[in-house]
Structure formats: C-alpha cells, structure tokens
Hints:
- The protein is α+β, with helices and mostly antiparallel strands.
- Helix content is 30%, strand content 28%.
- It contains three helices and four strands.
- The radius of gyration is 16 Å and the shape is elongated.
Amino acid sequence: MRQRTLLNLGSHFDVGREQWPLxxxxxGEKGIHSSWATIRETLAGQQRVTANFRTADGSALxxxxxxxxxxxxxxxxDALGIGHSPGAVRRTVV
Length: 94
C-alpha cells in the first residue's frame, strides 16, 4: 500500500481573498472569533489522501478520501454550513 496527500484543505481552501471577511464574519456569528490565518491553519490538519493497492489479479485499486475531521474543524464546517468530509470516498480500479 502506498499513500499520498492530494489536497491540504487548509492551504487549498478555495475561497477568494475578497471573501475572507465574509467567512470570518459567518464563523464569528457562530461564536468563533478567529482570524483568517487561524481558520486556514485549523483546516490544514484535514487532508484528502489516496491509498494505492494491488489486487490479486494484478489490477491497481485507488481509494481516495478525506482524513477524519477534528472537533475544532467540525465547528468551523458547521458554522459555514458545509459537510465535515470534503469529497466523497472514491474507489477506482485501473
């Protein structure tokens, strides 16, 4: 098995700079009074990874999923009204 990081959700959190104040305001309304840098740092702990396996018949199987959400990350996701596990679990046979 081989595992690699595909996406660091904190550094690749796809929000334009002009929307940062809106995100901070929205989480602030839910009692989270953190700077944009702190929000990004908190979300950076969750990543999307791929594990590669070789099956008995020689095919390659890739399983892609997000790592477990920590409570402080879940609190931010809840405040923003988004799911705790970005991207569905994806299995691909190559």
